[in-house]
């Protein structure tokens, strides 16, 4: 039996980037909450995309598709940031839901109610991301802070567009 020296389970990396281990671990926890929340929101947006009906169907179908495609890339970037600062990214739906500030969608509701809930969820994400930026700035992790700052604007714009569509 050949012995492989390759470690095949993600574990903590020793990282010397000027941010201490304890601070990086706390940031990784915050990023895990952001990734989990983003993942649950992604699933909810897909659900709206598939189930939207009514006079605004086409515009909401297209808008939600743009939102979930953008969010999919962002989730990847943020999970990879957790790895870059030395820790393992969340794995599986249970861990995503457990770490989420966004409530999972458990039943089909009317289109307008779905959109109102997405507006609230995007605003929750903006608030969570502000906390993440503050945490990153506290430990002078400007890369993480910049990444999360950019996300705030994306969620605020998504909330505005959805709100305007049902006004």
What does this structure look like?
By secondary structure, the chain is mostly helical. The chain has one domain (21-100, 109-166): Up-down Bundle (Ferritin), CATH 1.20.1260. Helix content is 71%, strand content 0%. The chain is built from five helices and no strands. The chain has helices at 21-51, 57-84, 93-98, 111-138, 142-166. The longest helix is centred in the first third of the chain and has 31 residues, at 21-51. The mean pLDDT is 90.
Name the features.
167 residues, mainly alpha, Ferritin, elongated
Strand content: under 5%
Q: Report the radius of gyration as a whole number of Å.
A: 18 Å
CATH H-level superfamily title: Ferritin, core subunit, four-helix bundle
Which ranges are low-confidence, i.e. pLDDT below 50, for 5 or more consecutive residues?
A: none
Distance between the ends: 66 Å
Largest sheet: none
The number of helices is: 5
What is the CATH level 1 assignment? Mainly Alpha
Q: What order do the helices and strands follow? A: HHHHH
Oligomer: single chain
Supply the CATH architecture.
Up-down Bundle
Strand runs, count:
0
